[in-house]
Amino acid sequence: MRKLPLLWQLFITFFAVSLLVMLTLGMYAAELARQSYVDRVTADLEAMARLVAVELPSAAEMEANSSKQDLCDLLAKTLGVRITVIDPSGKVLADSAENPQRMDNHRDRPEIAKALAGDVGRETRRSNTLHEDFRYVAVPLRTKEDKVEKVVRVAVSLGSLSASMRALNGGIFAACVAAAVLVAGASFWTSRRALHPLAEIQRGAVKLAQGELDYRIHVAGSDEIRALADSLNAMARQLDARIRTILRQEHEHEAMLSSMEEGVLALDNQGVIISLNDAAAQMVGADPHAIRGRSVYETIRKAEFLRFVESTLKSGVAIDGEVQLFGESDSWLHAHSTSLLDGENRRIGVLIVMHDVTRLRHLENVRRDFVANVSHELKTPITSIKGFVETLLDESLENKENSMRFLHIVLKQVNRLDAIIHDLLSLSRIERGAEQQVVPLEPAKLNEALHSAVEMCEQKAAEKNVPLIVECPDDLIAEVNAPLLEQAITNLIDNAIKYSDPGKSIRIEARRNENELVISVQDRGCGIAAEHLPRLFERFYRVDKARSRDLGGTGLGLSIVKHIAVAHRGTVEVESVVGSGSTFYIRLPIG
Predict the structure, then answer these.
(1) Pairing outcome for strands 506-513 and 468-471
(2) Cα separation of 190 and 187, whole Å?
(3) DSSP structure class, residue 63
């Protein structure tokens, strides 16, 4: 049920109380007026009775005089009342309204009995003769001996008294109605005036609740109302200051967490996510806004990570561990957990800090593979050299033809060792220069670098009947290290020649593409399967190891190309289709 507004509640209350008071006062006034009127009528009747007693003859005379009834009628008509004369025995001597002969003895009438006793009798009752309500006043008439000679009773019908009272009550009712209207207006005006400041305070409180903490309440009224408004204004200022402080601290915390490379994840004791930063969301592959406030078990689908979380929630001590996350690209996390405590040092959850160690793991794998590959690449020629040298020593160089063939094989293996060591030294020098940013870059024409690389490979291309086609604008200039760039292009052209069939051309192109320079080397050879492309630029990675060694490759050429591109703040890419050929791109930024 909807409640009435406070204004109408106050108005109805004030009006109801005022109306009740008015009705009470009106009823009291009406009763008081009626009583006053009755008293006045009674006094008038008493005066009339005494006047009539004086005018009437003695009882004996009235008994002997036959015209006593006419005198009584005349006085009654003149005074407008009913007059009755009774002797001490109660016998009615005369009556202005009835024949005395037919009237019974009145000695037992209350007012008559009191008058016969010497007092003035006053009574309101119903007349047994006329069957009507009357107000009676009986006055005793005494003799010289102070005896009651007769009683004169004067009466007036209450019908005429009621008419007068109705007129009086009507006036009182009209006065009460007028007073009630005035009270209603005064109550409404007073209630509205009293509630106007409260309405303004209510509007202000609504605005404060809606977040408009800069709103201020201005009211005029009693000291209590102004004190309430001042208190709300003070509360708004304090809330505004505290909320600004909290928001500033929250933004600072969010900024710090967002700028951290470490992932930070806070959980309560039931595993519900309290907070996490972008790094943590990225590590577990989730949307930070979508999973905050939800259970970690229903939002993160990483079995190893969830096992670590479960053990963390069950344990009351700090835990360290490594977690492997499986997906499109597997990753490794080093996670450290600790308890979250509230101000009373009670455990309310756990805090997990995660470090992405995928790159470290990858570097460890690369280092391990590099050591294994270097060992393998060096062991093969060294073993070959050792075997042939031992054979030469055993034969004592007596067979010149075999000795020369063995020496040529030893020389080939030595040259291979020299190429491997040379490439390793070049790769180390390029990496060190890129890391220390000491690779000098100068404006140079790319056309010259491309032609220089082509010249170094022309003889090998001609021996295999592989045409080399160069496309590059003469005015294409970029800041590069010309010797390193020539080495990278030479390696790409050399690889393209090795894996191209005779008669298939190789296209070397340089062009400007928006904010970068693109150098491409395209062959139409055997192509490379898609599973080999991600690892193609690793050290000593070979698609076909046997064929690569037969062609004289060291397994470091493409890795050198990659590091030369990185030294130029660029990248290297490859596109290949098995049976259709491959295209290698070197992308260098402009400016």
Answers:
(1) parallel
(2) 5
(3) H
Instruction: Judge whether residue 212 has pLDDT over 60.
Output: yes
Query: Which run of H or of E encompasses 445?
Result: strand 442-445
* Burial per residue of 282-315, b for 16 or more beta-carbon CB atoms within 10 angstroms, e otherwise: ebbebebeebbeeebeebbebebbbebbeebbee
Which residue type is seen at 365? N
H/E stretch holding 533 reads: none
pTM for the whole structure: 0.41
Phi, psi of 222 (to 5 degrees): -70, 170
The end-to-end CA distance of the chain, in Å, is 76
Sequence-distant (≥ 6) Cβ neighbours of residue 362 within 8 angstroms: none
- Interatomic CA distance for residues 155 and 243, integer angstroms: 90
Span 22-39, pLDDT tens digits: 778 777 777 777 777 777
Residue type, 112: I
Question: In angstroms, rounded to a whole number, what is the distance separating the alpha carbons of residues 314 and 132?
Answer: 103
Crossing angle for the helix pair 358-395 and 400-436, to the nearest 10 degrees: 160
Tell me what pLDDT residue 554 has. Answer: 61
Any residues with CB less than 8 A from the CB of 527 and at least 6 apart, and which?
576, 577, 578, 579, 580, 581, 582
Residue 320 β-bridge partners: 336
Residue 327 phi, psi dihedral angles, 5° rounding: -175, -155
Distance (Å, rounded) from C-alpha 224 to C-alpha 166?
A: 49
pLDDT in tens, 394-439: 666 666 777 777 777 777 667 666 666 665 666 566 666 555 555 6
Residues 6+ apart with CB under 8 A from 390: none
As given in the structure block, the two tokens for residue 229 are 């408004």
- Residue where the block lists tokens 């006065």: 175
**Phi-psi label, residue 206: left if phi above 0, alpha if psi -120 to 50, beta otherwise:** alpha
Q: How far apart are CA 195 and CA 199, in angstroms?
A: 6
